[in-house]
Amino acid sequence: MSELTIRSLTNIPITTMHNAFTEAFSDYEVKLEMPLEKFREMILIRDIKSEYSIGCFYKKNLVGFILTGYREINGRKIAYDGGTGVKKDFRRKGIAEQLLKHLIDFLKEKKLDVFMLEVLENNKPAIRLYEKHGFIKTRRLECFEIEKYNFTAKFEDSYTIKNNKGISKEIDLDKYELYLPSWQNADKSIENNSKNYSFQAVELNGQIVCFGYIHKKRGDIPQIGILSEWKNNGIEKLLLFSLSAKTKSEKLLILNVEENNYLSKILQKEGFKNFVIQWEMKLDLK
């Protein structure tokens, strides 16, 4: 189509991007419910920047896009694919590849260091496209869910539940980290949307042994931290149950658990279902 043009999403209204996103993901393998309020939250959490995002337009209509997040991490400039989509009527026209090529060239021009993304393991065409353009698989990530009413735990009198978010700034987080959180679960993502997350920590004999965050409405748990010596001691179930009481959602979600991490086995043992698997992929832009 000669009327197709690719350009930046700078100054494109968020409602236009939301409409395109909703239509493009209407038949996605994992059902996405994305009202405008949730879309705004996604943009905030993932640090999506319109000046780094790119769209394909048919005449004046946005028909394809890559929503790009941007962060500086440890002195490196990192871009993140926060959502790539093409409307149904415009698929199989090479638009996704054109968008990707344009964006990679743009990011190199801006002297970014790394471009990263997550892609469903079953989306073989997308994986082939990314590998064609130099992306490599870095981690296999598992996503879990459970109906909240199926999850219970018994509190021990010796444990104390703390809900002061300031605790996380007082402890050595490196001692609690189970694996490196994915982009949407990183500390920066939680900080961006802190008002919508509840924090819970379990204290024993004056020591914080584990902590976690949960979304107050949606039930997704972006991070869990546990001291190494407390792994596989049943404390995980107590923490999860404590978190479940802080959300209105009837479902608990834990996305992007690193494969072979001990938490994966714990979750399955407690009845969580592994409902989808993703690959984290990275492209060195230097």
Textual characterization of the structure:
The protein has helices at 14-24, 36-45, 95-109, 124-132, 187-192, 235-244, 262-269, and strands at 4-8, 54-58, 61-73, 76-86, 114-120, 136-147, 159-162, 197-204, 207-215, 224-226, 251-258, 273-284. The longest helix has 15 residues, at 95-109. It is an alpha+beta fold and 286 residues long. Helices cover 24% and strands 34% of the residues. An 8-stranded mixed β-sheet has the order 1-2-3-4-5-12-6-11, with helices on both faces. The chain starts with a strand and ends with a strand.
Distance between the termini: 33 Å
Spatially, the strands of the biggest sheet line up as 1-2-3-4-5-12-6-11
Radius of gyration: 20 Å
Query: Judging from the principal axes of the Cα atoms, what is the shape?
Result: elongated
Q: What composes the largest sheet?
A: 8 strands, mixed
What are the main properties of this structure?
four-stranded antiparallel β-sheet, 7 helices, alpha+beta, 12 strands, 286 residues
What is the topology?
Elements lengths: L3 E5 L5 H11 L11 H10 L8 E5 L2 E13 L2 E11 L8 H15 L4 E7 L3 H9 L3 E12 L11 E4 L24 H6 L4 E8 L2 E9 L8 E3 L8 H10 L6 E8 L3 H8 L3 E12 L2
Parallel strand pairs: 4-5
Antiparallel strand pairs: 1-2, 2-3, 3-4, 5-12, 6-11, 6-12, 7-8, 8-9, 9-10
